[in-house]
Amino acid sequence: MIVGSWLVVAACAACLFTAQMLFAGRRLQAGAIAEGLLIIPLWMLITPVVLRMAERAPITRLSWPRRLPAFAALWLAFFVGSNVIIRVPFPELRADFLRKLAFGLSVNLPGSALAFATLVVIGHIVASRVARPATVDARHSLSRNAHLVLRDGARTIVLPPEDVEWIEAEDNYVLVHTPQRSYTVRQRLRDVESQLDSASFVRVHRSAIVRVGRIAEVRPLGHGDFEVLLRGGASVRGSRSRRAALEVIRGRYSAMK
Question: What is the CATH number of domain 148-256?
């Protein structure tokens, strides 16, 4: 769908560029047309990357300070790199390279930023819908611990508990982390915890719950605190007020063996 859409855009753009040049009485030049068209295959290549990034690291009200700069850096690298790449194959575009590059960047900056922002928005919309193998009607009754039900306004997300790696609370939101992606919902941590099997999950901090089966290592920190390292690479801080969780973790691992 992505490739087909961009091919249609490329075909329409080629016809438009050709018609504009003929109407203006200008001779058709490969370099001039390529400058407008070669950028489209590059956009086709970056589109899946942007969509996947929107799925794996969605921008939310809480996460935007650390994730928005990553999206901006990706756009800037693509914007400059693509404008360099489309000029390299054509001698007429390589002449006076830096001046023409600077001119091209200044002209194309607003359109490129808008197109990239549109892709990011589309990526978030697609991810929120695809991530609902997920979405069920509230009339359906689910047995306790069979599924984890996350409600955020009119949206309902259902996850198998075994897919959950850890859960954290940020203000009035809860972030549920799985190996594939994270889900952010406006819900209280204790409401989410009440749905979890206490034999599989343990609360290591007032704002963090981990799945015992995903723990790779527990490290002591100063002042009685500790650090829980998960198999997916996440590091979750445990508080000394929850040190009893360490005994629970050891006991459950012994039971597994």
Answer: 2.40.50.1020
